[in-house]
Design a protein that fits this description.
- This protein has a single domain, classed as Rossmann fold.
- Helix content is 47%, strand content 14%.
- It contains eight helices and seven strands.
- The chain has a seven-stranded parallel beta sheet, with helices on both faces.
- The protein is globular.
- The termini are far apart.
- It binds NADP nicotinamide-adenine-dinucleotide phosphate (NAP).
- The site of NADP nicotinamide-adenine-dinucleotide phosphate (NAP) has 32 residues, from helix 1, strand 2 and helix 4.
- The site of NADP nicotinamide-adenine-dinucleotide phosphate has 32 residues, from helix 1, strand 2 and helix 4.
Length: 247
Amino acid sequence: MPGAIVTGSSRGIGRAIAERFARDGYDVAVNYVESAQRARAVADAIERETDAEALAVRADVGDPDDAADLVDAAVESFGSLAHVVNNAGIDQHVYTEDLSPADFDRVMDTNVNGAFNVTKAALSHLEESEGGDAPTPSVTNVSSILAYTGAPVECHYAASKAGLLGLTKSHAGDFAPDIRVNAVAPGHVETDMTADRSEAEKREELADIPVSRYGQPADIAEAVAYLRDAGFVTGETLNVNGGELMR
Ligand code: NAP
């Protein structure tokens, strides 16, 4: 089977993407930075429930050496690397007046530098790959609806997600025609990242979502699988937000 890397796939959206890729016939590297047990449980479940090989790999994507080790581990185990999903991300709710430069950098390091580091390390392997069942190899970056709207209480997060859209279009041109590069921009998705909402905040948020529900990780995995397989789509951002922001 061709190989895939899904960064930040010990839980949440990344986990759903890794499971989806395994069901679709790809061996998957399940990347984490802290949750070793959870990542191993995800990898074990994938191997139990599908024919895919799954490898739990610790790597801080913000560290270029870790990113290179992650790619090497995947290629060594799977023999090829057809797709990369840069999903690992962190956020932090703090207004600018209380935001330290170190915290600003931490969010940028994971969310933007992480995607750059993993993509750069994977480039030569993707170029050599046939892409599996997809028409060509691909990179998909997980951005956010906040890339467009901004977010007063998390300016660094919004800036990082907007940065990913620039990276996506730049790499789509740079790597064409061999590798397609796209982004997905989720709206509100139920994961650990959004678990701290009060009931009142949830009611307020849901009132702004036309489909009247939160997104589920599988909704985003569906969009990423589409981008993986869509041979005539590159440099594009797929907005998956229940109609909250229609562009
Ligand atoms: P989550 O539940 O908080 O999971 C984050 C994942 O990223 C975990 O697997 C975590 O690993 C991993 N991670 C964090 N820092 C890392 C690092 N430096 N290196 C490698 N892995 C790292 O988040 P989520 O809600 O599923 O979000 C996934 C992506 O979707 C993020 O990029 C997020 O910004 C984006 N997104 C989410 C929403 C939403 O509503 N949930 C909306 C728009 C966009 P550990 O478990 O080891 O910590």
